[in-house]
Amino acid sequence: MEFENSKIKKLYKYLSSMSYKAYSDPRLISNDILCKQDSHGLILETYLSGKIPEKVTFPFAVKKILLYFSKNLVAFLLYLVTAIAHRLSKQVFHFPKKGGLLIVDTYFVAQRILERGQFRDIFFTGLADALTRKKNNYVYVPRLFGTMNALKWLGVFRILKKNNEPVLTEFQLLEFSDYLEVIQFIFLYPFSVFRFTKTLGVTEEDRILCNGLWQRFDNVAFHGYVRFLLGRRLSFLNNDRIKCLSWYENQTLDKNFYRGLRSISRRIDIIGAQLFVRPHGLLNIITDEHESPFDVIPGRIFVNGQGYSFVSEYAQVEVGPSLRNGHLFGMNINPSEGDNILVLMPAWEKVVRYILEVIDKVNWPIPVEVKFHPSADRKLYEHSLSRRFSVTEKSLPDLFMKAKMVVGRGSGSQLEAAALGIPVIDLLNPDEFSHCCMPEMGRGVLWDQAINADDVARIVSQFQKTLRVDPSRLREEGARIRSCYFSEPTDELIEKMLGLDKMKV
Asked: How far apart (Å, rounded) are the C-alpha atoms in residues 463 and 453?
């Protein structure tokens, strides 16, 4: 995989060599920094800034070690209480007596399930309906996300039981010996990280990596190891017709789960689904072939569109169905008749605050609606959000129907808007690195980049003129983007991706 930024490319190669070195200790597969899962910008932003962090002091190291043990022990106790909550709920999955079984590895967001009183997969949208129509056995193996409150999870488990959802949690499979292994991991993991930091040299990259490892030393890391233990339990199942469809962002949870699935038997076919819009520069998304010896790469990888395809020596890479983007196909949108500007906020707080600062300085010709990222805490921005703007909770398809233009940064929804022929303004903060999801295709016609309020006003005026004079040009560019970066999620394409004809009851 090539990077547009040569310095990012250099950093990726360095981190790749470090993960290859580190993963000889399996516990380090649970380290988010070595996984290139740099969600806090500790590595990438520091590296691009050119600043070399100071050497970690002894008091700081002691503080981080103490925090690690306190955080992880508390988190583990809460995890055990959640396991008890699951047992009290009596939610279980009964394995089918015949036919194949598709394991669906996806996220379960507690608050969403509690609010709706049911589970709706927002990652593999429409998959369950397609599997039911094809009469295929499947089960969700969830990554529990959103809270550590056991009472909330008790409510979730009861909803799953009431609705008879096919869900197999780790709590159903893990045994007492597995929990003892988790305790062992919690105590040994920090020593693994510490030993690795002692192997690092004095180069710029070494010092930045060492600092990042120490900054994240107190991270709760055992959840990745739990996924390994779960995968190992599933690997014991004597079924040659088991497949695993996994939401594949190449994070610690993914890598550990695949390693576990392959620990006893390599018969389970692992399909990594990168069925999402990929931002530039997000290092963990890239399949690192140096990690192949550690059994952490899926056998097959399906991407969202041809524009995301890549060549791999260790995995079969194909275009899969854009399950999350099915609404892009069949929608008839005319942005020239739109009555508002839609601002789509990313998850990163610094970027959100910059966007709010800039849009507040623009004299907008029509009303502005703001939609925050699902993972964002809106309360953080209540005092920064101008009363001129309204906040919306509506679904993206509904919002796109009335949008004349879209403004944002680092949001995959920007590319969705462009695919529908809606003009997009990508708002860049020149003082900070932030991820971009927009390709070069359509730049200057369907989308453009701004760095301040004056740029935004100029581009808005430009797009207004295009919408009046030549709207067909926008539709044509949108169709090009849609055909390159998205693929209609038909039953046929789903069946091709999963080989479901070989798994029927």
From this structure: 15
